[in-house]
Amino acid sequence: MNDWDTLNDRIVSCRQCPRLVEHCQRIAREKRRAFRDCDYWGRPVPNFGDPNARLLLVGLAPGAHGANRTGRMFTGDRSGDWLYRALHKADFASQPDSTSLDDGLRLIDCCITAVCHCAPPQNKPTQEEVNDCQTWIDSTFDLVPATVILSLGQLAWRSVVDHALRCRWYKGRRPKFGHGARVELTGGRWLLGSYHPSQQNTFTGRLTESMFDEVFSTARELLQV
User: Fold this and answer.
1) Per the confidence metrics, is the pTM higher than 0.85?
2) Rounded to whole angstroms, what are the CA distances from 123 to 24, 59, 215?
3) Beta carbons of 145 and 187 less than 8 angstroms apart
4) Which pLDDT belongs to residue 225?
5) 212: helix, coil or strand?
6) Residues 110/53, Cβ–Cβ less than 8 Å
7) Which of 78, 117, 153, 192 is within CB 3.0–4.6 Å of 44 for a Cys-Cys bond?
8) Where are the strands (E) in 9-147, listed by range?
């Protein structure tokens, strides 16, 4: 077993946060009516994609009836619909949709992780839960040779910046999050910011498809530098 598989196995077997373990399992038992015939994953969701990727996406947490159901990051909900459509258009994904673990989707020079690997109640992990999951972010950065890191949302941005400061990838005042924000890190790395493709952002028009596509165009341009 390689280091990537070992890391993912450790993530899936993690039981550090009792509140999150109980919530994931309860959602998996109760289910949503539309998915009553589905077998829910109901555990921490592992990283997904190419461990040798140059583009690393950092999300917030699995959706209760999305990744917590399917077992794959950003899979089975509307946030994932937006994300994989954009990845496909930018040639980072083999197909524009992600529905299940066996749908044939392959990420190209890209992988996805999260600040929190368990679905939290109200989609809001506590600071202690975020801190407990930080070890998986750190281990992912240690393994993935990404030169472009895309943070989906402010909490993901904060987590990446924390890591960058600890590892001396960045010196100076803490950079401010914003959609389209771009920060040069040490070692030829870049940090990009994007609004999260949650329904709260996409339904209100705060994040449009063209805005989201532009972020991935920027990522592609930076990878060619």
Assistant:
1) yes
2) 12, 12, 24
3) no
4) 64
5) helix
6) yes
7) 117
8) 48-49, 55-59, 110-114
Query: For residue 38, which of 81, 76, 83, 82 has the smallest C-alpha distance?
Result: 76
| pLDDT of amino acid 184 | 97
Q: Which residues contact 46 (CB under 8 A, 6 or more apart)?
A: 7, 8, 9, 11, 12, 71, 73, 117
Backbone angles phi, psi at 146, to 5 degrees: -65, 140
- Six-digit token pair at 161? 């910046």
Listed as ranges, residues in the chain with pLDDT below 70 are 1, 225
Query: Do residues 215 and 148 lie in contact, with contact meaning Cβ atoms separated by under 8 Å?
Result: no
Q: How far is CA 140 from CA 29, 47, 159, in A?
A: 30, 8, 13
Angle (CA) 126-127-128 rounded to 5° is 90
Q: Token match 């993530």: residue?
A: 11
The separation between CA 10 and the C-alpha centre of its own chain, rounded to angstroms, equals 17
Instruction: Give how many domains the chain has, as a whole number.
Output: 1
Cα separations (Å) of 55 from 58, 108, 119, 143?
10, 9, 24, 13
Q: How far apart are CA 206 and CA 118, in angstroms?
A: 26
Residues 70 and 119 sit within 8 Å (Cβ to Cβ)? no
C-alpha distances (whole Å) from 147 to each of 72, 100, 114, 152, 187 are: 23, 28, 17, 16, 8
Residue 50's CATH number? 3.40.470.10
Domain that holds residue 44: 3-223
| Residue type (1 letter), 75 | T
